[in-house]
Structure formats: structure tokens, C-alpha cells
């Protein structure tokens, strides 16, 4: 039976009732259809005070519980999300715009479940540093207290879980501010989490920028986990300095991919495409500029185009769509501006690049591939964060590596070649938190993930991620 025949689609009203979401406040519309999905609450700095006070109280008892008990609760939260997965995915699709299928809404909800289970399974025991004639020293990992989490609109549920799961696991409470563009997805997720979690440990204050600012400066918050733009990250670090908070920063990227001259264009086309167009290009660590050797340049362009033409774009609740709209008008304007800059420079548009005359109601921009573009064009040097990929021709590998490293950001990167030794040699020279070989953007809860340069500080996931939401305490006998 196809998913379409078996799926019941809940109306926005039914979803609001199901997840106990507000019936008044700031209007939130579906970016694909402009239909009202619901209303966001309008909290302010006082609500942050209240949330912090509740979280601080709840955190004390939580920290006293055994780590294994906290892990059991994370597992129960994963089960609760699994039971609500389809309704969560439908709400996410309606609010964020991403289709239900493909690497989109259902995939995102499944990632929440997977990350919770993985985070609960990591072992982080006290470490004996030495135990000899000079004495014994043991390092313990203590909770930091209350974590302030601030998130973006592109993967609102999954990124919230990336912040919540390790924080809770290590004995912290969380005060979370979702993006003002996607508050309902996070409120619904928190509703499910809080049906399992002891009261007070997860507080969502779904406000706008002022709420983020209040969290960044609040004396009752010990650590900020932030995912969003580099510009906002810098503002938060400045604000957090007033109380010397710890910070983990997952910021913007402009990931390069380098296709070597021995790659097979037909074999890599699908993975290249999804490396760039996952979540309609609105992904921090997706392929945003592709460097292709001159000898196979035309073939790679042709194969990418051939594959891209088979991937349907449209409203999220249509089961056949795999690409959706931009999430908001502001992001659509950024994408339009960058493609216009490319066209003005004489770059060759292989497909897309124009809004259709009969443009749909939503913030759609067609899948766009741009060839013969200079490395210094704004579409290459700025983060487009949309369904557009510039493809740059290179002649020598040194030149490609230099271009790949030439920007002040360094989140992900990729190398495409069937030769593992060549891949390794190039990967070693790339300035990025992660380099993938023959794929791009495949995060894994066991691999620490983070950016270098202006893409961030610190890492998430794995044991290293747990350490970021803990304080190291050495006891020396
Ligand atoms: P954004 O920086 O505009 O907003 C992110 C969050 O910060 C929102 O909740 C917003 O309300 C809040 N905020 C804004 N100004 C603030 C301030 N002065 N103080 C405190 N909070 C403030 O980012 P966005 O547009 O929502 O997300 C897109 C960006 O996020 C892209 O650059 C993308 O690359 C990046 N991103 C990075 C990662 C990663 O893991 N590195 C993941 C996803 C997105």
C-alpha cells in the first residue's frame, strides 16, 4: 500500500489540539500554501526569568539521579516521539515547508529518535588520570546547570534534540528558544518530551530575538548552545561574556566539494545532488559550491542536471514531492539576489534561475544549477541556503584546494574520487570540521560535529559532545 493510501492527514486545527498548541498569538503560515498553521505565543524577558527559575529548581534533583536513570528516560522519550512520529512530521511539514518524504520531515523526526537513543547509549565514566606513588587523580564530569539553547528554522526539531539530549543526559535542565519562524514544531516536540520527562527540566520560551538576548545575558543560565548564523553567534558570544557563560556555537557554513578528474559523473550525480539539495538546500553542512576538474566538467554538469530534473518540488503534504519551498520570504530574497548576481556576471544557468510566471502561493524557488561561474562571485562566496548550486571549473588540484579553503568559514567539505588514497590526501588539506568522501553532509550521532574558523566553536554529538555540556572536576588525593 502506498503511503498516500495509508496516511491520514491531520488539519492544522487537529494538530494544534493534538499537541496542545496556542489558539491565538502571532500568526504562523505554511510557507508552501500560506495557509494558517497556528499561532505562536509572545513571551518576553520576564518569561525567561520564570523559565530559568523553574529549570534551576528541577535541575538539582535531576543531577542527583544516576546517569543510567537519566539515560532510561531519554530512551522513553525516544519511544514517545516514535509513537507520535507521523503527527510530528505533518506539523513540521506544514510549518517549516519541507516535504514529508525524502530527507525531510519524516526523516527529521526519525533523526530525533535516533539521536536520543544514541546519546543515551554513550558511556562517559570518571577518568583516572593517574594512580601511582605520587597520588591519585580522577576527573569527574559534572552537570553545568541550566543550558540555554537557541535554534534555527531549517531543522527545528532535530537541532533541538541535538541540544536537549546531551544536556539532559549530563544532568542539566534546558531553557530552549526555537526560531520565531518554527516555534510550533518545537513546542509540539517539547509537549511529547514533557509527557515523559520530570516536570520543569525542559522549558520552551518560544519568543523572538529579545528572548534569545535575555537567555544570552541571564545570570541563571550557565551555558549557551547556539545553532544559527555566524552574525548572531558573534552577538551571543559578546552578550554571554557579561556573565562568562560557556558557549557551543554551530554557525553558518559554505561547504565546498571537490570532484577529482577520475570521478565517474554518472555514478556520483545522485549523491552530489542530495549533498547539495537536502532540505531544499537549507542545511548548514550541505554542499554549497562544487569544484569540478576541467576534464569532466561538462559531464558532471550534464549528469547533475539530468538527475535534478527528476526530483519533484512542491507542497510538503503531497507524498511525491522531495523538495519544498524556502521557509520564509527573507531567505527567498537572499536566493533571488545571489542568482541574479551570478546571471549579471555572465555565468551559465543550466536549469532554474527564474521564478515561473504562474508562481505558486508559497516561497518556491526552482532547483537551479549555475555553471561557468567565477570563484569570487557572490553566489560562491556567500551562503545561499537554498536550492541553488554553483559549479566552478578548476584546472589544478592545488587551485581547487586553495579555493575551497579561501573563505572564513569551515563547517563541512567533501572529496569525490574512486581512489581512497587520493581522497585522503586531499581531505587532509581541507579546512573544515568534517570532510566526507564521495558523500556530503551525512552526520552521525557517534561523530563529533562542529565548525572551524567562523563556522563555530566546540562540537556536538558523541562523547565529545557530552563533555561540552559538562564541567570537568578533578579530585586529587
Ligand atoms: P539566525 O542566526 O538568524 O537565528 C537563529 C536563532 O537566533 C533564532 O532563534 C533567532 O531568534 C535567534 N537570535 C537572533 N538574534 C539573536 C540575538 N541577538 N541574541 C540571541 N538570539 C538571537 O539563524 P537562522 O536564519 O535561523 O538559521 C540559518 C543559519 O543557521 C545559517 O547560517 C545556517 O548555516 C546556520 N546553521 C548552522 C548549523 C550548524 O550546525 N552549524 C545548523 C543549522 C543552521
UniProtKB/TrEMBL annotation:
Official protein name in the record: Aldehyde dehydrogenase family protein
Keyword terms of this UniProt record: Oxidoreductase
Stretches assigned to the Aldehyde dehydrogenase domain: 27-469
Family affiliation: Belongs to the aldehyde dehydrogenase family.
Active site (record annotation): 250
One Pfam match: Aldedh
CDD domains assigned to the protein according to its UniProt record, in alphabetical order: ALDH_AldA-AAD23400 (cd07106)
Amino acid at each position: 500500500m502506498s503511503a498516500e493510501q495509508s496516511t491520514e492527514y491531520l488539519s492544522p486545527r487537529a494538530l494544534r489540539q493534538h499537541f496542545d498548541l496556542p489558539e491565538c498569538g502571532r500568526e504562523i503560515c505554511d510557507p508552501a500554501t500560506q495557509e494558517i498553521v497556528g499561532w505562536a505565543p509572545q513571551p518576553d524577558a520576564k518569561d525567561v526569568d520564570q523559565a530559568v527559575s523553574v529549570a534551576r529548581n528541577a535541575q538539582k534533583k535531576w543531577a542527583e539521579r544516576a546517569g543510567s536513570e537519566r539515560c532510561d528516560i531519554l530512551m522513553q522519550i525516544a519511544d514517545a516521539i516514535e509513537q507520535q512520529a507521523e503527527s510530528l512530521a505533518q506539523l513540521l511539514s506544514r510549518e517549516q515547508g519541507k516535504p514529508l518524504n525524502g530527507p525531510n520531515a519524516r526523516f527529521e523526526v526519525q533523526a530525533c529518535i535516533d539521536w536520543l537513543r544514541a546519546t543515551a547509549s554513550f558511556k562517559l565514566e570518571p577518568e583516572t588520570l593517574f594512580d601511582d606513588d605520587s597520588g591519585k587523580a580522577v576527573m569527574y564530569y559534572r552537570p553545568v546547570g541550566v543550558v540555554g539553547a537557541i535554534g534555527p528554522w531549517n531543522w527545528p526539531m532535530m537541532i533541538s534534540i541535538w541540544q536537549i539530549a546531551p544536556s539532559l543526559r549530563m544532568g542539566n535542565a534546558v531553557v530552549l528558544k526555537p526560531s520565531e519562524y518554527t516555534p510550533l514544531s518545537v513546542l509540539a516536540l517539547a509537549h511529547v518530551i514533557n509527557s515523559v520527562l520530570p516536570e520543569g527540566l525542559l522549558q520552551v520560551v518560544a519568543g523572538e530575538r529579545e528572548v534569545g538576548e535575555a537567555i544570552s545575558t541571564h545570570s541563571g543560565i550557565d551555558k549557551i548552545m547556539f545553532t544559527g548564523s555566524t552574525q548572531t553567534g558573534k552577538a551571543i558570544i559578546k552578550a554571554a561574556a557579561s556573565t562568562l557563560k560557556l558557549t557551543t556555537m554551530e554557525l553558518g557554513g559554505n561547504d565546498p566539494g571537490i570532484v577529482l578528474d577520475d570521478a565517474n559523473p554518472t555514478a556520483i550525480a545522485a549523491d552530489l545532488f542530495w549533498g547539495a539539495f537536502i532540505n531544499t538546500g537549507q542545511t548548514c553542512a550541505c554542499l554549497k559550491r562544487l569544484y569540478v576538474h576541467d576534464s569532466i566538467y561538462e559531464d558532471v554538469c550534464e549528469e547533475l542536471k539530468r538527475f535534478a530534473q527528476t526530483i519533484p518540488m512542491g507542497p510538503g503534504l503531497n507524498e511525491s514531492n522531495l523538495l519544498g519551498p524556502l521557509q520564509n520570504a527573507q531567505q527567498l530574497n537572499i536566493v533571488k539576489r545571489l542568482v541574479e548576481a551570478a546571471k549579471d556576471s555572465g555565468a551559465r544557468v543550466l536549469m532554474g534561475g527564474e521564478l515561473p510566471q504562474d508562481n505558486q502561493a508559497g516561497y518556491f524557488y526552482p532547483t537551479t544549477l549555475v555553471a561557468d561561474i567565477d570563484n569570487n562571485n557572490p553566489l560562491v562566496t556567500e551562503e545561499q541556503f537554498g536550492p541553488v548550486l554553483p559549479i566552478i571549473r578548476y584546472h589544478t588540484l592545488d587551485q581547487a584546494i586553495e579555493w575551497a579553503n579561501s573563505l572564513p568559514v569551515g563547517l563541512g567539505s567533501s572529496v569525490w574520487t574512486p581512489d581512497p588514497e587520493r581522497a585522503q590526501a586531499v581531505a587532509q588539506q581541507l579546512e573544515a570540521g568534517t570532510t566526507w568522501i564521495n558523500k556530503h553532509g551525512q552526520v552521525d550521532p557517534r561523530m563529533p560535529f562542529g565548525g572551524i574558523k567562523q563556522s563555530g566553536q566546540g562540537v556536538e554529538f558523541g562523547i565529545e559532545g557530552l563533555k561540552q555540556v559538562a564541567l570537568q572536576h578533578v579530585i586529587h588525593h
